[in-house]
Write a structure and sequence with these properties.
Blueprint lengths: L5 E2 L1 H8 L10 H13 L8 E5 L5 H8 L4 E6 L2 H7 L11 E6 L12 E6 L9 H11 E12 L1 H5 L4 E5 L2 E5 L6 H11 L1 E7 L24 E8 L3
Parallel strand pairs: 1-8, 2-3, 2-5, 3-4, 5-6
Antiparallel strand pairs: 6-10, 7-8, 9-10
Length: 233
């Protein structure tokens, strides 16, 4: 079987950005998104929302739909931020929205600026989870909520990759598996508490007829979603 070339995140998303929509576009992302939205506050009025690893703006859009009027999206990929800029056209009157290029472990944001920090399927792009959560805690105010998702560790054990196609070629994005022990240790170091955990599974109704996929995926969780809280002190 032909193995897809594995690319680092920056070159991968430079290729993928042109066809990357601002919505969940496969069954895994649909399962992950349902879990993320269930762990997010239902209303975000008056909250300062940061989407770290915002990509094309999927969770920024959801945050606006829940009433957020002050939003910042940060992403490593300039082409993906160009895609996210389309959200400015859909922003409600009076909304304050900004996009910035930056690394998850070095966000270009002031300390204690986020009431809610979101990060969807991006922490696996960084090898050191502790450095990412420490930075997330830095930019979050005391008592803030953080809702973060990643590919479930079971997927790595089964040999799954995050694949995409560009220019007629199939590629995979490099990904680091973060286990539960990594999350617990990183949260302890960063002053974060794990408030809730979800391990969503695929919904068979989301799988298109004739789709080729590992049937084991119907029997195991496909994403790991954490709701964290920054300690007040």
């Amino acid at each position: 079987m032909f193995a897809a070339p594995v690319l680092d995140p920056a070159p991968a998303y430079a290729l993928w950005a042109a066809s990357y929509p601002a919505h969940a576009h496969n069954p895994l992302m649909q399962a992950e998104e349902r879990a993320m939205l269930a762990l997010m506050p239902t209303r975000l009025d008056g909250l300062h929302v940061v989407d770290a690893g915002c990509g094309s703006g999927r969770y920024l859009r959801h945050a606006m739909q829940r009433g957020a009027m002050t939003l910042v999206g940060v992403d490593l990929s300039a082409p993906m931020l160009t895609r996210a800029a389309a959200l400015f056209d859909d922003a409600p009157p009076g909304a304050r929205m900004a996009l910035a290029q930056g690394d998850l472990a070095a966000l270009p944001l002031p300390e204690g600026s986020a009431d809610l920090l979101l990060c969807g399927l991006a922490v696996g792009h960084v090898v050191d989870l502790a450095s990412v959560l420490y930075e997330f805690a830095r930019v979050s105010r005391p008592g803030a909520t953080l809702v973060i998702s990643d590919f479930h560790p079971v997927g790595a054990a089964l040999g799954w990759q995050r694949n995409f196609q560009a220019g007629g070629q199939r590629y995979a994005v490099r990904h680091t598996t973060h286990y539960y022990s990594h999350w617990h240790a990183a949260c302890l170091r960063a002053g974060l508490v794990i408030d809730a955990v979800a391990e969503p599974m695929l919904d068979p109704a989301d799988i298109p007829a004739g789709a080729r996929f590992d049937p084991v995926a119907l029997d195991v969780p496909v994403a790991l979603v954490m709701r964290l809280r920054r300690l007040a002190t």
